[in-house]
Write a structure and sequence with these properties.
The protein is elongated and about 100 Å long. It has 4 helices and no strands. By secondary structure, the protein is mainly alpha-helical. The protein folds into 2 domains: about 1-35; about 40-95, no CATH class.
Amino acid sequence: MKFFKIAVYVLFALSFANLAGSLYMYNGIMNKTHNINVSLPADVMQMPENCKLRDSQIFQAILMTHHKIGIHEPGATEFCPTCQGAMKIVDNINKGL
């Protein structure tokens, strides 16, 4: 029984030391002024534009594949590069007539 009593006191002392250390660190962190300035590289600033370009290229590749296997009618989708090319040819023929 004496062992458990000593173990409880040791655990209480450790938890109290942990609490005191945590409070000391919290006060030390909260009292300091934080002026951290991180400059971002130019590549990171251009990332949204690059992502939009990549997404549009993937979308156009999907539409070209759909055009080749006949999922959509020619001229039905305005973002399909193959349909736009075909429509330009048709427009050029109509202008020539």
